[in-house]
Amino acid sequence: MSFFEKRHYFKTVFLMGLIVLFGIIIYASTIGVADINFFSSLKIIAERLPVIKNYIPSEEIINSHRIIVWNIRLPRILLAGTVGMGLAIVGVTFQSMFKNPMADPYVLGVSSGAALGATISMVLGLSFINVFAFCGALLTVWLVYLISRVGNKVHNITLLLAGIAMSSMMSSIISVLMIFNRDKIEMIVFWIMGSVSAASWKQVATLLPVTFLGSLLIIYFSRELNLFLVGDESARSLGVETDKVKKILLIISSVIIAFTVAVSGIIGFVGLIIPHGVRILVGPDHRVLTPFSALGGALFLIICDTLARTVIPPTEIPVGAVTAIFGSPYFIYLLYKSKKKVFG
Q1: CATH top-level class for 3-341?
Q2: 226 near 283, Cβ under 8 Å?
Q3: 327: Cβ–Cβ under 8 A, 6 or more apart, which residues?
Q4: Can you tell me the distance from the alpha carbon of 305 to that of 196, in angstroms, rounded to the nearest whole number?
Q5: CB neighbours of 123 closer than 8 A, spacing ≥ 6?
Q6: Phi, then psi, of 107 in degrees rounded to 5
Q7: Does pLDDT of 238 surpass 90?
Q8: What are the residue boundaries of the structural domains of the chain, listed by start?
Q9: Cα 344 to Cα 261: distance, rounded to the nearest angstrom
Q10: What is the DSSP-derived secondary structure letter of residue 178?
Q11: Residue 19 pLDDT
Q12: Which of 57, 109, 267, 292 is the most buried (most CB within 10 A)?
């Protein structure tokens, strides 16, 4: 298959994937205590779209169904998809930057920083949990960068070690705060396990543009990500300013994860297993791998969150627990099947 044939093939498959994603979004919006069929949900969504809404008979739609789908279920589904997209695309980026198949979006301690910020907010009884989590995430990345910087350069090993050290320290602080604030333990643990149950259109409007724009910027650096896999020296010899590009990618990725963790808590395994699974299907070329990983992450987290809110009603499972249930055995399976060949 020639290059142009491959490109056309992947474009077609990606378009089909987007159609499947749209179908799953609509189907997920029908699942819940209220019995809403697929076509009713489709009409509720379509009536909000320009031009199309003129052809939708709104009198046929039950108003309570409109409120349930548009105000409750759809924001949550879209937020879950956006979170999954962000986690997966940052996972791809870090695995290439650090040449480490075990790298995930939280490898630099972003999650622990966000969790500490959120914990401090809960302990103090403040309502700005998302703001504290966001500030904690960005502050952690900044500290990790300062610790690992040598002159104007940042080496991968020192960056990873600094991330591990900061993560351990902040996790310890969280444990101490939980011991002295036992009445807040349940709230803290539920947040740390990850959930999008408090989703709103405001959160979607905040996170979606950041994640989408950040993803486009990362896709723009697909050539550089490909070259990172063969080594920094080889990348430099081919004209890549490795240190500059890594700083840019680190900033973009950190901002995406900071926004993501601030609204969803810590949802593990999405940024770890999705890039591996997609890499096996489409290959290691980041021009294809990156957008397909974003699509795969969105699909995966929407499905997991739908299960989290419907498996044992009215009780809701944190979506982070569901991703771990699927992610752990699947990741072991991937390691068993591909072992050291995960990068092609």
Answers
A1: mainly alpha
A2: no
A3: 268, 269, 270, 272, 273
A4: 8
A5: 177, 181, 184
A6: -65, -25
A7: no
A8: 3-341
A9: 30
A10: H
A11: 95
A12: 267
